[in-house]
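Is this the right way to post structure tokens for a design question? Let me know if I should format differently. Anyway, here goes:
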């Protein structure tokens, strides 16, 4: 095989240089011309969902200390909120990404394009240690950090609103089961030991919704670009093209009797 490669190299030297050289040079040039992308990372831990339960505010449970940090189910719930189109759409409007990505803000479809571009520039991760990690790339390092932090704050805000609405629905349901004027008196007349206490707990829980996320590391503007990696792209192109050239030499190598 070595003799075949040597013979093929002598015969197809120019071909090999072109096959290897052109992709390598092209990868280096294109990588150098692409705009720099800066990476910012924000990390948070979800809180325990038990903290949003109105029942924890009653009787002996009010004195019980629940674990602050959430588990895998809490992380899954927060992750789904964070990656929702609601969050990316609100972020697109908040940071005027349609203009930032040089799209037409007067076209509704361009707002959707900006939202999709944000999703492509974002990576959401659930780590093995139970953390939610938000990675955002942008050519503006300050904006990348602001968006990463906003992902967490907006996710927390939406979670709080959902929990508050849930307790609000419970209050409405309790109010509908008796006719008197005051909510407190109406529920107390039904059963002061249960219904009124449930309403009070729901009302207190609605007003004191705990945070859904506890930020460990807020995102900071990066001082050096993360993308593109010129060296890595060039090396990758070189290795792939070299492998292709060697495969071609082995496939089309001249027979021994052709070289004698």
């Amino acid at each position: 095989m070595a003799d075949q490669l040597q013979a093929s190299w002598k015969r197809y030297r120019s071909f090999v240089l072109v096959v290897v050289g052109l992709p390598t040079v092209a990868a280096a040039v294109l990588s150098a011309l692409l705009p720099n992308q800066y990476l910012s990372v924000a990390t948070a831990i979800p809180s325990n969902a038990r903290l949003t339960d109105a029942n924890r505010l009653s009787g002996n449970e009010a004195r019980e200390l629940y674990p602050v940090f959430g588990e895998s189910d809490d992380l899954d719930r927060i992750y789904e909120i964070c990656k929702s189109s609601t969050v990316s759409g609100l972020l697109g409007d908040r940071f005027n990404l349609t203009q930032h990505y040089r799209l037409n803000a007067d076209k509704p479809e361009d707002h959707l394009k900006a939202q999709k571009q944000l999703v492509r520039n974002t990576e959401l991760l659930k780590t093995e240690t139970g953390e939610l990690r938000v990675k955002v790339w942008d050519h503006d390092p300050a904006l990348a950090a602001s968006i990463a932090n906003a992902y967490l704050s907006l996710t927390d805000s939406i979670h709080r609103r959902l929990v508050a609405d849930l307790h609000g629905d419970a209050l409405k349901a309790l109010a509908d089961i008796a006719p008197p004027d005051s909510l407190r008196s109406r529920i107390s007349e039904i059963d002061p030991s249960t219904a009124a206490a449930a309403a009070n707990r729901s009302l207190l829980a609605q007003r004191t919704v705990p945070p859904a996320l506890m930020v460990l590391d807020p995102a900071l503007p990066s001082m050096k670009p993360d993308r593109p990696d010129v060296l890595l792209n060039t090396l990758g192109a070189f290795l792939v093209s070299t492998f292709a050239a060697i495969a071609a030499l082995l496939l089309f190598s001249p027979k021994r009797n052709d070289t004698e």
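Format looks fine. Someone answered above. Worth noting: Residues 1-34+231-260 form one domain. The two ends are 16 Å apart (CA to CA).
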